[in-house]
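Why does residue order matter? Because the sequence determines the fold. Keep that principle in mind as you read this record.
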Amino acid sequence: MTTTNASTRLDEARIRAGIAVANIPTLLMVLVQLTGNQRWLRAPYLPSGPRGLSDNDTAGLDEALQLEVRAAATDAILAWGSGAPAAIPEPAPDTVVEMLRVAVGEHAPDDYADMAVHELRAGSGHESGPPIEHLPPGFEAVVIGAGPSGLCAAYRLGRAGIPYTVIERNDDVGGSWLENRYPGCAVDTPSHLYSFSFAQHDWTRWFASRDELLGYFHGIADEHGIRDRIRFGTTVCSATWDDDKHRWRLDLIDQDGNQSTISAPIVISAVGAFNKPKLPDIPGLKDFAGPMAHTARWPEEMDLAGKRVGVIGNGASAMQLVPAIADVAESVTVFQRSPQWAAPFEKFQVDVPEPVRYLLEHVPLYRAWYRLRLTWIFNDRNHDGLQRDPAWPHGHRSINPINDRHRRFLTRYIVEQLGRRLEMLGDVLPSYPPFGKRMLLDNRWFATLTRDDVHLRTTRVAKVRPDGVVTDDGLEYPLDVLVLATGFDVVRFLAPMHITGRDGQTIEAAWDGDDARAYLGVTVPGFPNFFCLYGPNTQFGHGGSLISMMELQMSYVDDLIRKMLDAGVDSVECRREVHETYNREVDAAHTRMVWTHPGMDVYYRNSKGRVVVNNPFKVVDFWHMIHRADLADYRTTTPGER
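Structure:
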């Protein structure tokens, strides 16, 4: 990790200002590494455990102890900036775990050691492997999609020295962050966790807005020369494996209808999942006379000022949209499908103080430890609460004692937010266990629902008329604007592309439509050299960062390609027994988890009731599964071999 000094670039006044408002648990870890003094890991400096998703900036210490820590950190960081080396530049794995336990105020198991060291190095800007020497003639890759995962793939391929082309149907990079531009759109993962290890950024908010995120991805495309290798406005219609040439043939069509074909031995699908808007099947929907838009297709010219706005749906997009437009519209009527759990998070829409931004940018150890703490707080600490206890007697409301405590905490929070409008509690309090659906983060959703000009309706929309909607109870709601916050078709991975692998098998047939399965979410038997990023069962429903998952998967693909070339083989196909064993483990784990709890309509289950989106494993367990590729898991062929 980066602990070399930076004597020519530290501004003492800005360092002092940053440390004065910095996160105390993070400063303690920086102190240990810079000074080597273990006393910062013992009482009276031990931080309290965080409450919920709080950063615990004061560590729960009294003012005098906080001042002592800040003063010591100031001396140590300024000394480092003047040339003093770090006393512990590379702490041993067991030391890192001990430090992490103190930093988060909770017990982190021993098996986190290797992952914690990896994340600490990544948080300091740890780079990927060197370029591959002696690539075979014609060895190249095609990446489908220029969203976050496509940019990650392109970066790693470029670092490896592998020629590549990115095919993108839109006119710019960014994926879902390009397409989603509704008011209030933002990330609900901390910015410093929702960022690539190879592209650290000076975030202006703790939870970045859509515009800042899109600018971040634009910067990656430009800085690393990726944009010049993208064919914009082009759609992949089909991809077909040629078993004689050991190459994929991709049929393309651009926005003008021009067709073309390209080929490559490697194809990486980076099409994402949240890119196919799901429209509700409501009679008369097309008859609405006013402006109507899905949140993922928000018109730039949409004007809500003084308008009566109807919002169908109350998921993540609606929770961001409604508070953002309530002050503009004449009224907002929300047509709720089912209540949602939402957790408080204190730093939403809060700016990162400029002095802290300076500290994060110029003291890599601080940035690395701040990020590592986030990986714990937003990762596996909630996993045990998602396991179904067969002996738990209150299965209608929760699944185990931990989950029941979550329910009580979240219920108290909702009650607080409703204030004097407690008559609304029955309409907004979910009946299913917490985390049964994706846990949302509250940005004044509940408080906004209590406004006199915001109306919550829990009766299903029966039909749409040119001037409004009618609900099942026959009530009519005149509207000027209709917003569809109805989510995405997530379970049909890769659709509508036609992917044909070995022996003419299609991915649609292999997956029986919406029953997608892949080994490690990356690769499927019968489809050599075809890799998915953010494939089936790769979303950590209990936490984690999608960006971290993308990097983890692409690191695996990078490692597999390197081992493939070192072994002199030109195609790899996941062995069916490896694939089946892994997916049996996935399904068995899901039977014990909250996402298979009855009585919930959720986007991550397919038409057969199988969970195809969420990953059931702890992040650390999956990290160990995917951290290194093993050629023994694959059927390999050499040039000319079938």
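The chain has a mean pLDDT of 94.
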